[in-house]
Automatic annotation (TrEMBL):
Lineage of origin: Bacteria, Pseudomonadati, Pseudomonadota, Betaproteobacteria, Burkholderiales
Protein name: Methionine ABC transporter permease protein
Protein family according to the UniProt entry: Belongs to the binding-protein-dependent transport system permease family.
Membrane topology: Multi-pass membrane protein
Organism superkingdom: Bacteria
Annotated organism of origin: Candidatus Burkholderia pumila
Length: 179
């Protein structure tokens, strides 16, 4: 009995790690470029485009402010399209990723805004391209803020994954009353 309970706990723990790891990795892969684009197209950005920034910012803020349980239900058709099911660990990864990416984008854009504008102007004066400014000035100088943001996301994903247990998988599923 105790051995069986321990095995169930270990299985649920691994499912949680998988959900958090994959959704965090994919969320970062989507959120980092989105955050950079938000920063670049914002006011005083190198590629200032207020229309693009408002649309992207609106989508990011809409998804970011949607409660996870609503998001879990709202993306069921998309989840079925992507993983073939709306229940289980793989199905929980999809809404967790959708929740993580805009949050990461917002934190990345905030970290990039903390970079001294003088450094960017100096790089532009030396003839640096946009990609050089991003990869050789902005990202290295904002790395502490981006790292802190990613840490916050992974901690948040641990909590989110417990809610995602409502559709199956992880420790949230183990603690679900209907199990």
């Amino acid at each position: 009995m105790l051995s069986e309970m321990f095995d169930i706990f270990v299985q649920s723990f691994w499912e949680k790690l998988i959900m958090v790891g994959i959704s965090g990795f994919i969320g970062a892969a989507l959120g980092l470029p989105l955050g950079i684009l938000l920063y670049l197209t914002g006011r005083n950005g190198i590629l200032q485009n207020i229309a693009v920034n408002c649309v992207l910012g609106g989508v990011v803020n809409a998804v970011r402010s949607t409660p996870l349980i609503i998001l879990l239900i709202a993306v069921i058709p998309f989840t079925r399209l992507v993983v073939g099911s709306s229940i289980g660990t793989a199905a929980a990864i999809v809404p967790l990723t959708i929740a993580a990416a805009p949050f990461i984008a917002c934190l990345v854009a905030t970290a990039l805004r903390e970079v001294d504008r003088g450094l960017i102007e100096a790089a532009q004066a030396m003839g640096a391209t946009t990609s050089q400014i991003v990869f050789k000035v902005l990202l290295p100088k904002s790395l502490p803020g981006v790292s802190a943001g990613l840490t916050i996301i992974f901690v948040s994903l641990v909590g989110y994954s417990a809610m995602a247990g409502a559709i199956g998988g992880g420790l949230g599923d183990l603690g679900h009353p209907l199990r």
